[in-house]
């Protein structure tokens, strides 16, 4: 697993943990038969994933997650959906490639594809 | 009795997948591949890894032959639901031990708010809770199943 894939999987796992820890979601889905007993297992999985991510990204990711509830943000039409600043052309990822970038304006990690 | 009161499982675009395998991992692989082929998903590897990991949360099989795996991911291009069905059932590790015959895979893009995504999952669970709905989905042909899910009576 490369570092980008690990980071994207970490993001997905955190999205799942957010749902599993949200009282309203838990109650709603619990009533329909879902169980959430495996949270500690997933927390250990999280530690493993964090270790597989480039450490330069981990700090930024964790800070964004703590501050904004989301470790990676979306870019839409060149606009960072975190701070809504248009990214400079120089920030463009190579054509046909996706990747992790840093928003120079707000410091969030961006998944640009 | 014609069941005409099957509500739309989802207003989301949906696809029907005939599950060929007995193993949960294989079934999820097949569903993700179908989603990728339909352009709903890119980075299928990431999504599959996330879905497999997510099975450890507890169980996404809620019993009586129904499982609703789900993800909010950058691998997902647009909201969608894929419905997998298997007459002989998939070993999903459900608490009641019943093999899963209906799998509703609910996918949301990464930016989807948690409550909205949970609502989609709850919607699928709710609409598929009745045995007769699930049986009907197993009995009809593929076009009929899709029509049923979209809220028409097949
Ligand atoms: Zn920004």
Describe the protein.
The complex is a heterodimer of chains A (113) and B (154). Chain A has helices at 3-21, 23-31, 39-52, 55-68; strands at 72-76, 79-80, 99-102, 109-112. With 113 residues, chain A is α+β, with helices and mostly antiparallel strands. A 4-stranded mixed sheet of chain A has the order 2-1-4-3. The longest helix of chain A has 19 residues, at 3-21. Chain B has one domain (8-149): Mannitol-specific EII, Chain A (3-Layer(aba) Sandwich), CATH 3.40.930. Chain B contains 5 helices and 6 strands; from the N terminus they run E-H-H-E-E-E-E-E-H-H-H. In chain B, strands 1, 2, 3, 4, 5 and 6 form a 6-stranded mixed sheet that branches. Chain B is globular, with a radius of gyration of 14 Å. Classes of the chains: A alpha+beta (113), B alpha/beta (154). Chain A binds chain B through residues 1, 5, 8-9, 11-13, 15-16, 18-20, 22, 24-25, 28-29, 32-39, 41-42, 45, 72, 74, 81, 111, 113, and chain B through 42-43, 45-47, 49-50, 53-54, 56-60, 62-63, 68, 71-75, 95, 110-111, 114-115, 117-119, 121-122, 125-126, 129. The complex binds zinc ion (ZN). Zinc ion (ZN) binds at residues 80, 82-83, 85, 103, 105-106, 108 of chain A.
Report the mean per-residue pLDDT of chain B as an integer. Answer: 86
- N to C succession of SSEs of chain A: HHHHEEEE
The percentage of residues in β strands of chain A lies in 5-15%
The count of helical stretches of chain A stands at 4
Number of domains of chain A: 1
Helical run tally of chain B: 5
What share of residues are in beta strands of chain B? 15-25%
Distance between the termini of chain A: 19 Å
Radius of gyration of chain B: 14 Å
What is the H-and-E element order of chain B? EHHEEEEEHHH
Shape summary of chain B: globular
Anisotropy-based shape of chain A: globular
Any idea what the CATH architecture of chain B is? 3-Layer(aba) Sandwich
* Rg result of chain A: 16 Å
In CATH, the homologous superfamily of chain B goes by the name Mannitol-specific EII, Chain A
Percent of residues in helices of chain A: 40-55%
């Amino acid at each position: 697993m490369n570092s980008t894939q690990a980071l994207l999987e970490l993001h997905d796992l955190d999205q799942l943990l957010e749902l599993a820890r949200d009282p309203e979601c838990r109650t709603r889905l619990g009533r329909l038969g879902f169980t959430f007993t495996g949270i500690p297992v997933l927390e250990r999985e999280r530690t493993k994933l964090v270790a597989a991510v480039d450490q330069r990204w981990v700090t930024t990711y964790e800070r964004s997650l703590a501050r904004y509830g989301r470790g990676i943000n979306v870019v839409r039409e060149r606009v960072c959906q975190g701070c809504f600043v248009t990214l400079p052309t120089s920030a463009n990822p190579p054509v046909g490639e996706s990747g992790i970038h840093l928003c120079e304006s707000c410091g969030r990690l961006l998944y640009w594809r | 009795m014609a069941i005409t009161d099957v509500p739309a499982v989802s207003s989301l675009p949906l696809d029907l997948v005939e599950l060929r395998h007995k193993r949960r991992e294989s079934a999820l692989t097949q569903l993700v591949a179908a989603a990728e082929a339909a352009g709903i998903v890119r980075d299928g590897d990431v999504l599959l890894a996330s879905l497999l990991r997510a099975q450890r949360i507890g169980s996404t099989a809620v019993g009586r032959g129904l499982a609703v795996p789900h993800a909010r991911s950058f691998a997902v291009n647009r909201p969608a639901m894929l419905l997998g069905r298997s007459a002989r059932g998939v070993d999903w590790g459900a608490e009641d031990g019943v093999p899963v015959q209906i799998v509703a895979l609910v996918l949301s893009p990464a930016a989807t708010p948690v409550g909205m995504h949970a609502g989609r999952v709850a919607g699928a669970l709710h609409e598929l809770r009745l045995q007769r709905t699930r049986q009907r989905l197993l009995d009809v042909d593929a076009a009929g199943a899709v029509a049923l899910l979209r809220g028409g009576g097949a």
